[in-house]
Write a structure and sequence with these properties.
The protein has about 350 residues and is α+β, with helices and mostly antiparallel strands. It folds into 2 domains: about 200 residues, Multidrug efflux transporter AcrB transmembrane fold (Up-down Bundle); about 70 residues, Alpha-Beta Plaits, CATH 3.30.70. The chain has 12 helices and 6 strands. The chain has a 4-stranded antiparallel β-sheet with strand order 3-4-2-5. Strands 1-6 form a two-stranded parallel ribbon. It is elongated, with a radius of gyration of 34 Å.
Length: about 350
């Protein structure tokens, strides 16, 4: 049977749980890199968070470089890279300006580009708006985590709630760290994408947990398998489903990021596309390699599960000994059959006499 057939049927035997220390180490290294990036590089906040003025050009054939030069000649260089929207639209962000300064800059740039002022619109955004948005996002995130923890604790057990929360925090740190490393602008779309990936990561984790609970049902009453083996079996059984779900979610997001933002140059979607792409990939990883192994570590510290492991080990040792003894007995019997019984004496033959020394 091929590897793909075993994956499709949920019959793979990859030792996810047995190698969990490797996954912990890899995740720790990745988190350390992200934290260093937070400290050294920080984040590139958009105008919605730090405040500023936004100029939007519609129906113009001017290129991004031409518009950038027009703003520089007017004495107000763009605060960040000029964004092209929909092929004929351009968005430029500058430092905060007063109404009079904004109106003068709008007229100067329109004159420099040879277009009507009606094709240029200007808006000003205060930094307080971004501050309020961030606070609300954090409040929503905290409420979400509390509600999810309560649900998982009631639906499964508190150990699974701990594993799920740690996996979610891992996804948040990794997604934010990649954003910091790449240097993309943090916008409200980034916050929306960050909250979106939490739902995907949680969904994948709950699917695995449900299978773990099914495999571990009444496991303490017997000595068939340990909890870690039941959990590892669950991860293997749901592996193909996790792969399919992740690919289906990642393909359209990859199209937004690499085709829309990379090839077509639609800069307004790259912030959302990047956070979704990284978060979905990280969520698929953490559900398999972190959430379930953490549950196993917490569960097998319980004396009941320690006793279960001892029973399973003793039973298997006893079965192995019986199998070995049976094999030795079988070998001895086969050897006896091959040698056969001693030949019977011929009729009328004299018995052999021992020779005197």
């Amino acid at each position: 049977m091929s590897v793909w057939t075993r994956l499709y049927r949920g019959e793979s035997r990859i030792n996810f749980i047995g190698h969990r220390k490797r996954w912990y180490f890899a995740s720790l290294i990745l988190i350390l890199i992200c934290v260093v990036s937070f400290i050294v590089r920080g984040f590139h906040y958009g105008v919605e968070f730090k405040g500023g003025s936004t100029f939007t050009f519609t129906g113009t054939n001017a290129s991004a470089s031409t518009v950038t030069k027009a703003f520089e000649d007017a004495g107000e260089p763009p605060a960040q890279a000029v964004q092209v929207v929909g092929g004929s639209g351009i968005v430029v962000n500058t430092k905060p300006l007063t109404a009079a300064q904004s109106q003068k800059l709008q007229a100067d740039v329109a004159r420099s580009l040879g277009i009507s002022e009606s094709k240029v619109s200007a808006t000003s955004i205060g930094s307080q708006w971004g501050h309020d948005t961030t606070i609300r996002a954090l409040e929503g995130l905290i409420i979400f985590l509390i509600a999810v923890s309560i649900y998982i604790s009631l639906r499964f057990q508190w150990r699974m709630a701990v594993g799920g929360m740690l996996a979610l925090l891992h996804d948040l740190v990794v997604a934010a760290g990649i954003y910091s490393l790449v240097g993309f602008e943090v916008t409200p779309s980034t916050i929306v994408g960050l909250l979106t990936i939490l739902g995907f990561s949680l969904y994948d984790t709950v699917v695995v947990y449900d299978k773990v609970g099914e495999n571990a049902k009444d496991i303490l009453a017997g000595s068939r398998m340990t909890f870690s083996e039941a959990a590892n079996l669950a991860v293997n059984q749901t592996l193909m489903r996790s792969i399919n779900t992740s690919l289906i979610a990642l393909l359209p997001v990859a199209g937004l990021l690499f085709v829309g933002a990379g090839i077509l140059g639609v800069g307004t979607i790259k912030d959302l596309a990047l956070i979704l792409f990284v978060g979905l990939a990280s969520g698929a990883y953490s559900s398999l390699f972190l959430a379930t192994p953490i549950v196993v570590d917490l569960t097998e510290r319980d004396p009941q599960y320690k006793a279960l492991t001892k029973r399973v080990t003793a039973k298997r040792a006893s079965e192995a000994k019986r199998a070995s003894d049976a094999q030795l007995t079988g070998v001895a019997a086969a050897a006896a059959r091959r040698s056969g019984p001693a030949p019977a004496p011929k009729v009328g033959a004299r018995p052999e006499r021992r020779k005197r020394k």
